[in-house]
Amino acid sequence: MHESVMWLFSMCLILGSVVGLLAGLLGIGGGLLVVPALVWLLPQVGIEPSMLMHIALATSLASIVMTSMASARNHFRLGNVDLSVVKVLAPGIIIGGLSGSVVAELVPAQYLPKVFAVIVLLLALQMMLSLRVTHARPLPSALASVVGGGVIGLLSSLAGIGGGSLTVPYLSYFGVEMRRAIGSASLVGFLIAISGMIGFIFAGVGSANLPAYSVGYVYLPALVGIAATSMITSRYGAALVTRLPTATLKKLFAVLLLIISIKMFLS
């Protein structure tokens, strides 16, 4: 394996350890950090600008498949997953997740980082404001839920994230108790990640100039590096929840996201 690829793999081991720790500690999807990090790392191994964001998004979603599966399993064991809610959202989530790769192919390469930056900016603002729902509302009709799930899936796939930052406020808005909203969002995140990943794999198959060790747009050295450490450190992050001021840390993380999104939008 080429020396630069080994360097990227070792950097992704470090990235995965940080991402896993933050995911466990703050309950956020690692994609918010993975995508900007890969946008910086991937050019170092010669990946062309025209497919840089596609590979970053696809690889981020593939890494989330690994981590969200473990998270969803844990929440399911604890009884935090409301399957009736997930079933209503699932059709839209899967369609939206798959559609993200189609939209990413249609958006000119130079504008895709700006799309990502705007989505992250909105998520950072939501995280900073910590919006709370004061009036519970009944869940919308099946058709409205498909549309809502579709929007969540599409935006999440376009940002390379599991969508917890979108799904939890959505469910909370409709009166789902916070613990069950978070647990259900973990399973929804798995559905988003796997449908988005499949979409990007099929979109990338046959593309010219794909780097070696790729499956569609998923870049395996980065995926293996991130997944190997993030699945370990997420447990430690969850264990630190009761010891550290997570509300303050979440706001600091939101400020970091604001800086990242503005930088990506202007670059």
TrEMBL record:
Coiled coil, from the record: none
Subcellular location(s) per record: Cell membrane; Membrane
Membrane topology qualifier: Multi-pass membrane protein
InterPro entries recorded: TM_pro_TauE-like
Record keywords, A-Z: Cell membrane, Membrane, Transmembrane, Transmembrane helix
Main location: membrane
Residues that span the membrane, as ranges: 12-39, 51-72, 84-104, 110-129, 141-161, 181-205, 217-236, 248-266
Entry's family note: Belongs to the 4-toluene sulfonate uptake permease (TSUP) (TC 2.A.102) family.
PANTHER family: MEMBRANE TRANSPORTER PROTEIN HI_0806-RELATED
Identification of the protein by name: Probable membrane transporter protein
Source taxonomy: Bacteria, Pseudomonadati, Pseudomonadota, Gammaproteobacteria, Vibrionales
